[in-house]
Design brief:
mainly beta; 6-stranded mixed sheet; 10 strands
Length: 115
């Protein structure tokens, strides 16, 4: 069972940038496709972006062109670069295997976009 630790969240102004990081409990998690997900208060958890072990990426329409998911092999992590953030990006962000079927969720990291 691989566990994930998310970090990098915080308060950012609209139009600003933030970089999130996903660290695994086992380095072998990088053989899997990894995704970022988010959940806003009162909303269902939703898909944000994913990246396969061959670096094929997918993005939700809501973040396409603004967010970039990448593998940081030297650090054994998966990052989510968030640019031009919007208030609607406010949520707890989680990383996990993609797809998430049969997977558990970590604590996530809070991202708040506000002026």
């Amino acid at each position: 069972q691989v566990q994930f630790v998310e970090s990098g969240g915080g308060l950012v102004q609209p139009g600003g940038s933030l970089r999130l990081s996903c660290a695994p409990s086992k380095s072998t998690f990088l053989i899997y496709a990894i995704g970022w997900y988010r959940q806003a208060p009162g909303k269902e958890r939703e898909f944000v972006a994913s990246i396969t072990h061959t670096r094929v990426t997918n993005y939700a329409d809501s973040v396409k062109g603004r967010f970039t998911i990448s593998r940081e092999y030297a650090k054994n992590t998966v990052a989510l670069q968030m640019n031009n953030v919007k208030p609607e990006d406010t949520a707890v962000y989680y990383c996990n295997k993609a797809p998430t079927t049969g997977s558990s969720w970590g604590q996530g990291t809070q991202v708040t976009v506000s002026s």
